Amino acid sequence: MCNWLLKQTVQPAVISIGCLLGVSPAYAAEWSVTPVYSSSVDYDSNRRLLTDARGTGSAFLTADLRFKRALEDSEISIEPRYTLRRYTDSALGNGDDRSITAGLAKADERYALQLTASYYDQSTLTTELLETGIVSGTSHRRQTQAAGSWSWSQTERRQLVAQLSYIDVSYYGQGSDRLPGFRYPSGSVGERFIFSENGSVTVSAFGSALSSDVKGGSNHEYGLQAELTYFLSELTHFDGSLGESSRLLNGASSHGTDASVSLTHDMTRGNLALTYTRNLVPYGIGFLVERQQGTASAVYRLTPFLDGNITALRIQNNDATVRLGLDRRSINTISTGLTWHPVETWSVGLQIAGVRTQAPTISGDATVNEWRSLVTLTWSPLPRARSW
Asked: What would the pLDDT profile of 162-191 be if each residue is shown by its tens digit?
């Protein structure tokens, strides 16, 4: 099952915000408000990742507000975000993105609970580019997600853990007839054994089901998985999982292996991270797709005011995905950048990225290349406290 199913950092959400914020005046407390405003310009040599490449530019403005209310044993957060994006090529249409997320976290000595939900309305130029390749500036993806995770400490060395998630994806605009969307509930329940101060093992059963209006688009998976979490040192952390599942994909039954590995190392002035996942990923065309993904990234503080970063990513889809024309065979990307912090609340970023893949067709073996340059100016005012 997807790596995020067991280790997903719960994304804040909007469902049941009224419940999250239904606090009586007797319990009123201060909220912190953290705004972030940014403006960017970029140039992309092949924004659609097609063989008939044509360079385009874009400019966008983003406003992000994070509201947070923290008590001794709980925390509530709400974060609306809006991006206004315009392209030099009018054929790319409206690239505006909008979202709102919210979350509730609560814990005591015996249990920890997290509830989240989110709503995103994004251009397919960003959501579908590295998946189906069905992109249009006038088509958008709507995604509603709710998730919850819960753990209960039975003893000092044993915990009962459970997670549930539900995703609903739909599309509107030009080209949406080829993207029927999907509904994707998933969950897991298991036992965590803490064998030392540095590590734990979690054994769990998991399952997921994807349903869609597309013919033959009912897919599901269920199985068992084991996860090892271990701190090799105070600065080095390992997290790995391996699972075996029974699957029904496109009407064909099979067995498959899910796996994930994460290794991170913190340094005085930076961080290194290596990750690998092999899992089933839900696609907007109404299918679960088996893909492998590997990422290597590094962040390093060159000076007290200048940070550098580099990231390499490879995505590999299985043969069935390529034969059915659901996605490209592979995608390779690399990006590097610098971020300058002249003062505490301002930063200027420069990024250069490249992509190498194939044309999004069933027989598409033609190589497609892209490079992109991006300059971003960000203003992050200091958080402010407000009482409501």
From this structure: 999 999 999 998 878 888 999 999 999 999
Residue 82 near residue 97 (C-beta atoms within 8 A): yes
Helix, strand or coil, per DSSP, at residue 125: helix
All domains in the chain, ordered by first residue: 3-387 (2.40.160)
What is the rounded distance in angstroms from the CA atom of residue 172 to the CA atom of residue 176? Answer: 5
CA distance linking residue 318 with residue 257, whole number of Å: 13
Residue appearing with tokens 């590995």: 261
Rounded Cα distance, 114 and 32, in Å: 20
Q: How many Cβ atoms sit within 10 Å of the Cβ of residue 260? A: 24
* Contact call for residues 99 and 122 (beta carbons, < 8 A): yes
Strand-pair partners of 363? none
Contacts of 299 (CB under 8 A, 6+ apart): 270, 271, 307, 308, 309
CB 214 within 8 Å of CB 180: yes
In eight-state DSSP terms, residue 366 is S
- Which pTM value belongs to this model? 0.85
202, two tokens: 């979690």
By the 8 A CB rule, do 110 and 142 touch? no
